[in-house]
Amino acid sequence: MPALSHSRQNAAILLTLLVLQWFLMSDSARRHGGSPAVEGLVMRVSAPGVRAAHAVAGLVRGGVNGARNLLAAHVRNTALEVEVQQLRTELVRVREAEPENLRLRRLLGMREDLAPRSVAATIVTANLGGGTRVVVVDRGTRDGVRDACPVVAWGGAVGRVVSVDARHAKVRLLTDASSGVAGIVQRSRAQGIVEGQAGAALQMLYVPRYSDVLHGDRVVTSGLDGIFPRGFGIGRVSSIVEDPFGAQTVHIAPELEYASLEEVLILLDDPAGSAVSREGAGVQP
């Protein structure tokens, strides 16, 4: 028979002592005339083992309680982390809604003051690469939109509708290479045709050489093209190039950040009879 290991021997001795002590202390043992001397001896011998057993049991209970508390704290921390993340998400949403609400209020005010026959639209896709610069908005024929409707935003002219279906419309921006709008220098009344260039720049062509145009002058729509009403901002003169054939080419920095547009206003009135004819519409410097 293999010998018991040292730890197993100690455990067996401790168990024997505990059982013997319990037996001697029970009523049954006293009824059968247990010897006080023997009982005292056994209790003295087994007392260290009993205390050790109680200590071990206390440690086990403490460990179990500690693990339980740790688990509860982990659950609480996880719940708090989820709540913090939800609050952060809500804060981001609120912060995003603030500028959107401001833009929509501006469009609403613009619509009420200058273009009562119009519809607000949100840009859903954009193609701003190369010479082609168009956006698609979420309004169509069911909203009264039709081909050639002018499109504006807070601060100036955006472009015009070039195709439309029931729910969407494609808008060619002023910066598109094939766009064109009649423009006028707000200060001096010099006129020309504003066209898009490669990139995001504009130029006004066919400006007579003698016309009074200065760097920084504001250019707005003149209304002479029969598409855009008069007075919507186009941009600021950035440079002037004299043409040897007796004209000037006026380079214009756009007034709008077309790449940042999210909402626009589509004008539904015929420009010839439109209420939008106030020069200077948009944000003044």
Structure at a glance:
With 285 residues, the protein is of the alpha+beta class. The chain has helices at residues 6-25, 27-31, 36-113, and strands at residues 118-127, 134-137, 150-153, 156-164, 169-173, 180-185, 191-196, 202-208, 218-221, 233-242, 247-254, 263-267.
What does this structure look like?
The strands form 2 sheets. The protein has a 6-stranded antiparallel beta barrel with strand order 1-2-5-4-3-12. The C terminus is likely disordered. By secondary structure, it is α+β, with helices and mostly antiparallel strands. It is 36% helix and 27% strand. The protein folds into 2 domains: 113 residues; 155 residues, Beta Barrel (Thrombin, subunit H), CATH 2.40.10.350.
Task: From the structure above, extract its key features.
disordered C terminus, 2 domains, 285 residues
Order of helices and strands: HHHEEEEEEEEEEEE
Question: What about the largest sheet?
Answer: 6 strands, antiparallel, barrel
CATH superfamily of the largest domain: Rod shape-determining protein MreC, domain 2
User: What is the chains' assembly state?
Assistant: single chain
Supply the helix-strand structural class: alpha+beta
Number of strands: 12
Q: What is the count of distinct domains?
A: 2
Q: Name the helicity range.
A: 25-40%
Strand order of the largest sheet: 1-2-5-4-3-12
Poorly predicted regions: 272-285
CATH topology of the largest domain: Thrombin, subunit H
What's the CATH class of the largest domain, please? Mainly Beta
Mean of the pLDDT scores?
76
CATH architecture of the largest domain: Beta Barrel
**What is the terminal-to-terminal distance?**
104 Å
* Residue fraction in strands: 25-35%
Number of helices: 3
Computed over alpha carbons, the radius of gyration is 43 Å
Shape designation:
rod-shaped
